Amino acid sequence: MSFGRPLLRRSYAEDVQILPTSFQKGLLAFSGVLVTLMVFGKLGLDTPIVWFLGNTWINNVTLALIFAIAALGINILVGVTGQVSLGHAFFMGVGAYTAVSLGGEGDGIKACVPWHEEMGLLERAGDCGMGLPMWVWLPMAPLIAAAVGILVAPAAVKVRGLYLAIVTVGLVFIGLHLARMFPNYAGDYESGRKWPGLEFRLWKEDTPLIDMTEDGKWFGFITLSEEQKQFFFLLLLLLGALWLAKNLVRSRTGRALQAIRDRDVAAEVMGVPEFEYKRLGFAISSAYAGFAGALWGSYNGRLSPVDFSLTLSVEFIAILLIGGAGTVAGTMMGTMFVELIPEIVKRMTDKLSGQLGGGWLEPLANVLLTKGTPGDFGPISITTTSPGWPMSVFLWNLVIYGVLIIAFVIFEPLGLYGIWLRFRNYWKGWPFSY
Amino acid sequence: MNLAVLLAQESGGTIAILTQTIFKSIALGAIYAITGLGFVIIFKGTQVLNFAHGAIAMAGAVFMSILVSDGGLPFLPFDNPFAPPAGETPGIGRWLVCLALALAFTALLGLVLERLCIRPMVGQSLFAMAVITLGIEIALRPFNVDAVALQARSLGIPWGNETFGLFGAILPKSFIAAIIAGVVSFAAVYIFYRSKLGIAMRAVAFDQEAAMAQGINVGRVFAIAWGFGSALAGLGAIFFGMSGWPPNGAVSGETHPVLAFRVLPVIILGGLDSVIGAVYGGLIIATFEIFAGEYLSQWNSILGSGYSTIVPYIAMLVVLIVKPYGLFGTEEIRRV
Q: Interface pTM (ipTM) of the complex?
């Protein structure tokens, strides 16, 4: 600890600590105290925590927490190991379908055999689902995903750079076809199937030990709504994932991975076995993806194979670039930014459409919005969600998203983290320029 | 009696099916090759792996459909000034003029994209460039899909779904058209590479700085690579929309957006920077895909419907493990 001299490092351990300044440590302690007070209702509010984040934003933020876990994974592969992968959606799918096969409702283990109907094991095509509790499927999802990652690694390690990106694109398409081939795992290709809820059971008993799908009290004294329960549970998991990721980056393994990213030949000369570490990078990244995939399915309740298409992979590349590749903090910022932008755009459009009848933004609303009546010309449709001009807000989000990727790569290659660094460094030396 | 017809009757249509399959493979191969050539030209000229190729290609098909069909303009509130009289298919001459115009528009789109998004990034890492093209793909695709909206837009093919017979097989005329287009575009690329500009492009591909020192305008080479590559992409997409496979003479929001991703295995097989590789790759991959679709169809229930579309990806994985730089690609020399 070095008070007053924030940049003075006296040992390696000090250099790599997670919270290097006393300000950050204080901030963490303060938020810890705040959360504890909130939990025990000592902040002078009638219903503790219920006011927190409202009830509409919390869904988006919770989804962002899940995506943050997956983004940590892609950061380890692309940002830390330097292997450009567009196959993250595939590994998320592996985790998600592991979860639903182990935890979902279905016709038992016979239905999990591929082509069971053709082989005569079952009278009709069944769904693979064993109804096991969460403590089985949640740890199994990252394990199976990591195993698949290790299986894919030999092919992926052989090619480098852009060739790897193309191979992993192929992986996503093969994955989508596998989902079509095995409807006993994936369910109907369009509508998907139901995932097990976020409930903690000891075994298959009726009332869950800790449930997260109903309003009520936790452990008898913490009053929480359903959304908040899920939020806090996922926040806890994200903190664990963050802690692991941060520790990985500053460990021997992390340094080896970074050496491979910076110059693979040099790393090998220094005694870092390239193949082993690239494979490890794949495995860890896939494990994160699988974990997040299982949670996503469980949180959403229902996903279809189409959700694990290339767009999802690109979303993670966008998160990485917008946040700032290679940094854990940047990954977090990127996830929040990318995941919350659709909701922000939607809210802005709703606000604008409220002004259509009259208001100080009426001219702008008239130019931008259209209700689909003849002669009403504007790029954003507020009445329809089907494709066709004018485009719905959903499709405009995709456009915004693509433009953001381009803009960030051209103008701010370090991403939001770079912007933050510049901001921080400016105020650190203020009023001096450095 | 003709020997071929006799053969076809004798073998209960086996030869007919084989003929049809072969022609279909060559036609699809030609389309893959056209689109793949666009990829290769852009990669060779500018060292950019263009993930936006699919969006640009589909934009070309959309331009074409606007020019030749009376479906109205997609994004503007007034009527389509180019549209032929209602219910009339354009004649072959008019159609070819429209094709040239559509390709010109596509090339222009490529030029604009290059100027706006790629030029500022000259000299940056390949990954950053590839990610920019991913961004372009995402931003353009909604416009493309919206332009064709729910129904596929007609491409006004003059010969429509007409067929002709050969060895007892019934073949759409579009197969021949696609093969002709493939030959013409390969010839165009071949001649281009022997022109002064093409030599300049190869010099730029070899070493940008050295080329610049020889007085080559690298910026212009970049622009031409993108313009030419985009036009080829559009050509591929237009012929992809012909009869013989799902879109059936139209540009559709379902099959067209993935065209470029189906071409990725082609250029991987041929090698990212090989012109002849794109042609061989296209033919080989299409042959695998069509033959698998035709002759493994009795196992459809096990392989899953549409299994033939992932055959190229599996072929690509195998190729990459055996020959990481494709059949004709330049092997990367790793200097220490």
A: 0.86
